[in-house]
Amino acid sequence: PGQGAGLYRQKYEDEAFWILEGVYTFTLNSRQLPVAAGSYISVPRSILHAYTNSGDGPARMLVLVTPGGSRERFYAEAGELVTAQGASTLSNDLPDLSRLLGIGQKYGVESLPVDAPADHPP
């Protein structure tokens, strides 16, 4: 609960989210939408969005990114960064955020600061 992805958008891919368990709150541009298990939400490329597990328990989703290619390269390079720095998803160690954001920009993923307005222009 309370975890998710901050505001971001991607230049090259559309995303589809199938909520398998729990409840999320999605932000699309400046609009907030509660989305529960069994729901589907589509986010076209260049749309600023975020999501948070807004329920009281675990939440799971299936995410489809299309077309393929650049997102896989992003994850591969970002994963190498995390491995190279010894960070683990099982610890509190975090990779160098500025480098991670740079990798995102390289592959067309723009992450915005936490305090950025949800209607931030592209």
Automatic annotation (TrEMBL):
InterPro entries in the record: Cupin_2 (IPR013096), QDO-like (IPR053146), RmlC-like_jellyroll (IPR014710), RmlC_Cupin_sf (IPR011051)
UniProt superkingdom: Bacteria
Ranges of residues in domain Cupin type-2: 1-64
The name this protein goes by in its record: Cupin type-2 domain-containing protein
Transmembrane feature ranges: none
